[in-house]
Amino acid sequence: MSDEAIPEPDRVEGAPHPRETARVIGQGAAEAAFLDAFTGGRMHHGWLLTGPRGVGKATLAWTIARFLLAQPMGDTGGGLFGDAPPAPDRLDIAPDHPVARRISALSDPGLMMIRRGWDDEKKRLKTVITVDEVRRLRGFFGMSAAEGGRRVVIVDAADEMNASAANALLKLLEEPPANATLLLVSHQPARLLPTIRSRCRELRLSPLSPAAMAEALAAAGQEVPGDPAALAELSGGSVGEAIRLAQLEGLALYAELVTIFSDHPRLDRPRAIRLAESAAGRAAEARFDLTLRLIELMLARLARTGATGTPPPEAAPGEAAMLARLAPGPDAARGWSEAAQILTARARQGRAVNLDPASLILDTVLRMDETAGRLAA
Fold first, then answer.
1. Domain named AAA+ ATPase: which ranges (predicted)?
2. Tally of structural domains, the chain
3. Distance CA 167, CA 49 (A)
4. What is the mean pLDDT for each group of 10 consecutive residues in the chain (377 residues)?
5. Which domain holds residue 326?
6. Distance of CA 367 to the CA centre of its chain
7. Which residue among 68, 109, 258, 323 is buried most deeply as judged by most CB within 10 Å?
8. Which of 328, 337, 352 is nearest to 296 (CA)?
9. What is the largest CA-CA distance in the chain?
10. Are 51 and 193 in the same domain?
């Protein structure tokens, strides 16, 4: 398969690749922390970019890479009258900057990205980052050392490294090459070796606010379907998840789930059947996965409401009243938490053995209804 035809594991379907995104949105604190380290002479060779999936970690990594490779090396002072140029006050560089054009084309010699490779035998992306991918850095640092200048490595996502790859990367962090910066994107930093985490400085990114979410979706060319606050709430502040919800009409799907349970104990069984059947068939596989994800989210929001005594911000009309009625207190919180563990495990097992999607979803909905009746009694 040609390089152009190989899918990119770090691209969200329907959205620009992070290297094609001009700027980071809603993560000013993380940007400021890196810029402060750079201008203050406290640059670390390893940076760990953490936070929920889809909040801009990869976009920030590519923004940092462009910024670093566009900065002159060594003493930048000595202008016409011996004055140093002003320190940069932002990470963005001009879109027509030569570095920006080269990075967009993946042709900058100072940049290397490490991600899951292509399996020629199985004709699909590998499930992990292997040691062979990390070993490519030997040639990268060897060839670029003679040229001087900065070298930047992006690992996306570092959580996907197998044990051999992680140990190989650890050696680089322990003895980093000169002028090298390693940017590790991590959705679940607890899965990384403690020694890798200890040798990196962490940049923690936060879920996006509704306003930042709307701005990020507009920048990605996505229309906001309905209430931006509801989309931010359902997606957990993740742009990647919000795009998925928008493409699969996730807001309407969650609203349908809320409606089904709003009349408990009078479950609208025909409506539940229609919901289940809408996720059946090969063409509806993505909707099936999303339906299970939203059911899992509803269970978590029920447990949270019972534990805190206050429903979270509404993600669908009437949701707050439904949550408060079905989860009125701590006892209900424990019941919904236990139900979430059981029903989520059952759904994953059914998914793994290819049970009929409609039957699996309908069974899950009916068991949630039984749980609501038992807790009410």
1. 43-208
2. 2
3. 19
4. 68 83 91 95 95 93 96 55 68 94 93 92 90 93 70 96 97 93 96 96 94 87 79 90 88 95 88 93 85 95 96 94 96 96 92 90 95 90
5. 248-376
6. 31
7. 323
8. 337
9. 83
10. yes
